[in-house]
Amino acid sequence: MVKTEERHQRLKEILLSKKAEVEKDIRQHLARQIGPENEHRLDSVLDQGDLSSIDMGEGVDLALLEMRNKIRKAITLAILRLDEGNYGYCEECSGEIEEKRLKVMPFAQLCIICQRKKEELEKIEREESIRDTDSA
Ligand SMILES: [Zn+2]
Asked: What's the CA-to-centroid distance between 5 and ligand 1, angstroms?
């Protein structure tokens, strides 16, 4: 069990640092735009996902911010799932997804082996559909 615990801890560190990164990004983006009177509201606004409710003035790329906020929420969910013991396992074979892989793609749902298989299958399907259109 110690090994699982260690993995859990390392995955959590990965997720927390990703979350801190994206939050820093959001704050930096907003720091110049929102007044100090809005800054304390930022966390709750981000949690509700209703960024348009703060007056951010012009020059804010709302679409970009919303995308970042989506990532932030997804990471928060991943951390919850990790605590429940449901994060970092392959949806296909239930094996552990490599830490290296999760570091680069925290939302990966397949291990590298299943991912490759899937891509291989998709490639075959694509080729088959091209052939189908050709013969039609
Ligand atoms: Zn797998």
From this structure: 21
99-102 long-range contacts (CB < 8 A, ≥24 apart) are 99/7, 99/10, 99/11, 99/14, 102/11, 102/14
pLDDT tens by residue, 11-55? 999 999 999 999 999 888 777 677 667 777 777 777 777 776 766
Reference 72, options 119, 121, 19; nearest CA is 19
Find the 53 Cα to ligand 1 centroid distance in Å. Answer: 42
Residue 49 CA to ligand 1 center (angstroms) comes to 33
Q: Per-domain residue ranges for the chain?
A: 1-87, 88-136
pTM: 0.77
